[in-house]
């Protein structure tokens, strides 16, 4: 769509919202009402040419970097036109009598897969090349360097793919093609100037003395450092028309920078008490039903463009398997802030795995062991994972476990964990160690007994504190494999265990495994991969960790059996 300069694109979107109010969340209807109020004021005014110059620049230079449209210039959707037009269209007279842009800060919150990266890239590029700010200092900020690259790399590609921009520019790169900065050199009336772009993450000391004209805060919800945000805002005060451009999804923390700015922005929407800030939030209305597809459409403005209902349906199916999955769906796809400390599994999901009467006699079976070791306060667990199949021929996982606990101060341990360790020891699920420390010889003795009772294939272990014990186990002839506790290693295992629990294909006879699974809180990396976190989990998860370590192998040993084929085979043998 070509930008026509006589069109007010903010008016176009406002008209759509007014005509079809049920299709939009309350937060966006408030943003439209705010825009209409501003049109009636006499102290500020709308410059349609400035609004459309920005829109035209963005559609001319910003290109898709992934997917089927990679390499093509973007076409701004009505909701994006509404936001950008307001940012650059509203003008006022400052204290020095100059006509300057009214908006100095943007808070734009929208679910994932709705084109946030290109929105940020567009604003960044216009600040560097389009708005005419002389000596512009432009920054891209994020929670870490890798996150910042989601905006920095497309910006670098934008410059390199445009001869008009690249002829006077230099893009600076680091390891693996990362973009760390750029400079744009030009002359005005024979005087040389430079606009600079820098990637900033945690080095807040470099902010002192800076004079930023534009700061992009990408995925603000993930930023924990209030100092970086506040220092940049203070450093901008001397500029006539700077922009702090905050763009984010909702997150899983109540203490992040994003939550603070979100709450401030919601108040601005309600009270309209800060002309310098533009607020655009796509989130469900109060009392929403997270299963309602109409809600999905309301809060995903790029539906049927960069995100499809089919993709959301797939994510929704996964979200129903665990509390963590639901939290991921709410925060990433419905733009709802959720409690970051929620357990991965719900009680209703996990408690049914405790089925001792269905375990059967497993002696002699092929098993894979998982080992999670501790010294004092945590549990040490040996998990025995037995891949097998049910009566319907579906593969399933049976898990037996033995826990080792120092007996010292056992009364306090039982009270603190709310677990009857002594009763569990009587039932054979727990083994006490004398004194204050775990006795590794007891663990070796137990594993040696397992080698007699089962066909032990391998021991997978958390390498923390395990070196000496593993050396002794290897001397017994056991194959021992270290399982690093990283999201890149354990994400697939977590997904498979989640699926087995959801499909009721994982059972155990040990109630402590249920306890540990219910305590799991995960940590998620920048790519959305997850792993259990002992630091984030308030209570013990050691048994779950041992089971997951073993399942790094058993997930590949589980195969369904064709029961019909088996019956036919038996008939050929026995007639």
From TrEMBL:
Name of the molecule in the record: Putative terminase, large subunit
Domain Terminase large subunit-like ATPase: 78-263
Species of the source: Levilactobacillus senmaizukei DSM 21775 = NBRC 103853
Domain annotation Terminase large subunit-like endonuclease: ranges: 271-551
Domain of life of the organism encoding this protein: Bacteria
GO molecular function: endonuclease activity
InterPro entries to which the protein is assigned, alphabetical: P-loop_NTPase, TerL_ATPase, TerL_nuclease, Terminase_largesu-like
């Amino acid at each position: 769509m070509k930008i026509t300069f006589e069109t007010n694109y903010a008016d176009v979107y406002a008209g759509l919202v007014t005509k079809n109010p049920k299709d939009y969340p309350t937060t966006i209807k408030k943003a439209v009402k705010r825009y209409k109020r501003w049109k009636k004021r006499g102290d500020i005014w709308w410059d349609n040419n400035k609004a459309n110059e920005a829109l035209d620049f963005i559609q001319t230079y910003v290109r898709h970097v992934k997917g089927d449209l990679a390499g093509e210039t973007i076409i701004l959707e009505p909701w994006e036109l509404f936001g950008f037009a307001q940012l650059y269209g509203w003008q006022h007279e400052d204290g020095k009598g100059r006509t300057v842009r009214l908006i100095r800060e943007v808070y734009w919150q929208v679910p994932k897969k709705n084109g946030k990266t290109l929105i940020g890239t567009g604003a960044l590029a216009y600040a560097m090349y389009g708005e005419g700010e002389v000596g512009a200092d432009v920054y891209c900020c994020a929670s870490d360097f890798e996150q910042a690259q989601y905006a920095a790399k497309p910006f670098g590609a934008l410059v390199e793919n445009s001869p008009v921009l690249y002829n006077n520019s230099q893009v600076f790169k680091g390891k693996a093609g990362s973009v760390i900065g750029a400079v744009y050199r030009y002359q005005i009336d024979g005087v040389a100037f430079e606009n600079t772009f820098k990637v900033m993450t945690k080095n807040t000391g470099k902010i002192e003395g800076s004079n930023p004209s534009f700061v992009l805060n990408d995925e603000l919800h993930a930023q924990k450092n209030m100092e970086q945000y506040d220092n940049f805002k203070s450093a901008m005060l001397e500029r006539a028309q700077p922009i702090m451009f905050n763009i984010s999804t909702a997150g899983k923390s109540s203490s992040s920078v994003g939550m603070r700015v979100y709450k401030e922005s919601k108040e601005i929407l309600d009270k309209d008490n800060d002309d310098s800030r533009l607020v655009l939030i796509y989130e469900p209305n109060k009392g929403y039903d997270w299963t309602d597809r109409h809600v999905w459409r309301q809060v995903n403005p790029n539906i049927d463009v960069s995100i499809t209902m089919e993709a959301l349906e797939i994510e929704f199916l996964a979200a129903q398997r665990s509390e963590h999955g639901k939290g991921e769906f709410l925060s990433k796809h419905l733009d709802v802030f959720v409690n970051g400390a929620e357990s991965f599994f719900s009680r209703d999901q996990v408690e049914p795995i405790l089925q001792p009467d269905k375990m059967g006699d497993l002696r002699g079976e092929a098993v894979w062991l998982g080992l999670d070791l501790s010294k004092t306060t945590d549990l040490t667990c040996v998990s025995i994972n037995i891949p097998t199949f049910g009566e319907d021929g579906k593969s399933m996982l049976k898990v037996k476990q033995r826990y080792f606990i120092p007996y010292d101060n056992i009364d306090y341990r039982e009270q603190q964990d709310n677990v009857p360790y002594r009763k569990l020891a009587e039932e054979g699920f727990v083994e006490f160690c004398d004194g204050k420390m775990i006795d590794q010889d007891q663990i070796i003795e137990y594993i040696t007994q397992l080698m007699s009772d089962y066909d032990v294939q391998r021991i997978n272990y958390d390498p923390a504190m395990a070196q000496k014990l593993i050396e002794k186990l290897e001397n017994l002839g056991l194959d021992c494999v270290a399982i690093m506790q990283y999201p890149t290693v354990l994400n697939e295992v977590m997904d498979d265990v989640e699926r087995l629990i959801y499909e009721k294909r994982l059972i155990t006879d040990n109630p402590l495994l249920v306890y540990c699974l219910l305590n799991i809180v995960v940590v998620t990396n920048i790519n959305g991969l997850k792993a259990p976190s002992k630091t984030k989990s308030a209570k013990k998860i050691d048994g779950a960790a041992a089971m997951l370590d073993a399942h790094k192998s058993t997930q590949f040993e589980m195969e369904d059996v064709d029961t019909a084929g088996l019956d036919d085979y038996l008939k050929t043998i026995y007639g």
